Amino acid sequence: MTGKGGTGKTTVAAALALALASGGRRTLLVEVEGRQGIAQLFDTPPLPYEERRIAVAPGGGEVRALAIDPEQALLEYLELFYNLRRAGRMLKRMGAVDFATTAAPGVRDVLLIGKVKEATTRVLDGERVYDAVVLDGPPTGRIGRFLNVTAEVAGLARMGPIKTQSDGVTALLRSGLTAVHVVTALEEMPVQETVDAVDELRRLELSVGTLVVNMTRPSLLPQSEVARIAAGGVELARLREGLVAAGLPDRYAAGLAAEAVEHAVRIGLEQDNRRTVARLGMPTYELPLLPGPVDLGALYELAQRLIDQGVG
Predict the structure, then answer these.
(1) Mapped to the 3 state alphabet, what secondary structure does 145-188 carry?
(2) What is the pTM of this model?
């Protein structure tokens, strides 16, 4: 899951994980940016570097969560491939782990996605442990570089475990198991970043999945009247008559007229942005702008909205 900052990417990822776990399934919700956004949404303590159950899904099923720390991923990698548990601890004390993940960001991303790959492909008693894995990925401006791991490490590792790891990650990302879903809002900058990100992902031959238009608001005006009112075509006399008929002072007419024009302008801009994203040709879901802060109840409501639109 990717999207411009401020579009509700993490919220939508959490709602998607709940929707995909409905009916008795199990999903894993993963974050890689160190913000502990998942813990805040589900009102739990900060997530450790381990998979932990955080919610029961609608109709049964469960959501587990994992916050991947680059340092812990590197230490785990050193232990797994080189049996360097003690050396890894020493490197951590020396600050070498921070140096390695900062100096070679491509390797950092390989390790992060490699941990997701391990969870995605893990099998127990002949069946995959998770029915779905939802990765709350970097925003649209960084998603292409984050997922294009082979190119990022090509100049750093031409053979050995890192190269093998990056090749395995690339195979998963370009397989039928993976799709990149994009969250946007019907505003100019998020829509433009969405268009740019989708173009980049397609150029990198990564599978683009669905578009989630988030924080939508209903129009309070008839569609046929939007353009006229946006141009200032509010009949104040009729508005005053309506207010009086409703038992309200007609002095509110000017303020209401200004609000109507502002609302119509916004609806017109949203319609233009909706046409822009429609040209991307992606299956699209819509989620409403909910009043107040996003809490656990809001997550379940958004998950049910996705289920009602066919997710799960």
Answers:
(1) HHHCHHHHHCCCCCCCHHHHHHHHHHHHHCCCCCCEEEEECCCH
(2) 0.88
